What does this fold into?
Amino acid sequence: MQTNNLFKPLVLDIQNLSFAYEKERVLHDVSLKLDLHDFLVVIGPNGGGKSTLIKLILGILRPQEGSIKIFGMAQERGVKNIGYVPQNTNINIDFPIQVIDVVMMGSKTKSTLFFKRSKEETQKALEKLRLVGMESFAQTKIGLLSGGQRQRVMIARALYNEPKLLILDEPTSSIDVTGQKQIYELLKELSKTITIMVVSHDMSIIVEYATKVAHINKKLTFHEIGSLTQNLHMPQTNHFCTVELLEMLGEKK
Amino acid sequence: MIEALSFDFMQNALIAGILVSFISGVIGSLIVSNRMVFLVGGIAHAAYGGIGLAIFFALPMFFGTTLFAVLAALLMAFITLRQREKIDVFIGLIWAVGMAVGIILVDLTPGYNVDLMSYLFGSILAVNREDLLYMGALLGIILAVLFFWYHEILAVSYDGEYASIVGVNVPFFYTLILVLSALSVVVAIKVVGLILVIALLTIPIYIAQNITASLYGMMLASGLIASVFTLSGLWFSYHFDLTSGACIILVSAAGLCLFMGIKRLAR
It folds into this structure.
């Protein structure tokens, strides 16, 4: 088993990635490696390239330079192992669709004719909804849910395809503190079996959940969280001083 | 009204009204959820170029309008998929140029004296068997497309970005929806005219969106609501001798107001 691990491809292997919109360079020579069961938090200023990096990993954008390998496969083939939770969960909010049908969009359908769904697909969608605690809302119209509830549904959709890597873009930006905590706990639970990558502004998530931190501002600076936390002394609270932490993450090479 | 039903033209008008209502119910649902209303407005007006073309070369009207509308749709799809940020400019351009081409071609046609108003505001009472055949065939094609690709079209319409991540061919389905919209615009022009086509493609959909919980439910409800509007508009048009397209749109608008009033009271 041990030797086997040596030959296991990395979950995510990004090398020397560069990207520019028109003339404006957003990412410069970015490299990043993710191992199984990593919990990576990506931070950085607005416009620093966080969302661009995600779009490149998902293949929504194509890099000008560098390579992205997902489980050792080229991006196009590897992307099917990724589940994605977008930042904006308010898209098409008037669209008449039930929660369970949204979840089933997590993979290209196997059902063939007209609007019928197979039993297995329905069962799987319900199972994912149970995982995020939204099973009782399966038949509810998506537009009637609160921001936090919709976020959970989007996580269920991302999990529907049985991904090995889950990527979330600002998953807690539109929800209250209790909701945020619940989502983080859910991610912690999920990280036991899959790799998690979260873009977040929320510093407390780094201390409590992350195993790795990446700071992106055109360039990427990478940190193992274990060594970081030792350097900081936190009496009583487990809340970092945001400024102090940001400074460390940004400055350290 | 009953004796009116014995006339051939009235029977044709009724059948056309129902066919076009269901076509616009289904396609309108896709247009609204894909946020293509302005885009399809452009296609509808560009189709006027096809009317000019048909008049100038003495071709069948459906042929000219179909050609222009589909070409406009393909062009719009191409631009949207390449340069989304410039789409507004191109819609305006295609919108205006299509109409200008139509007007010039009509100008150049010697001895032309067809009532142009009927293309701007529709002439449902002048629908013939051939038109009905075209409408029926189009509805058949639309239903066949849905039968095979409902889930893909649903995924693209609800969240195109996610659909592309899971491997749905978004550009193909986006283009398909636009081409079907163009064909629907062509038949809707016959009933309500190209100026009013957008109202028929949006008002029933807005109501249906509020009372259904699935895409196919919205399509079906939109079709039924549009049928009610079209047939009552037709009755007003016949009874008071008014332009049919304008009657249908005003009935639809009144229906929308009524619905919004009820919705507010119900809360």
Summary: The domain at 2-251 of chain A is CATH 3.40.50.300 (Rossmann fold). Residues 11 and 71 of chain A are 5 Å apart (CA to CA). Residues 233-240 of chain A have pLDDT under 50 and may be disordered.
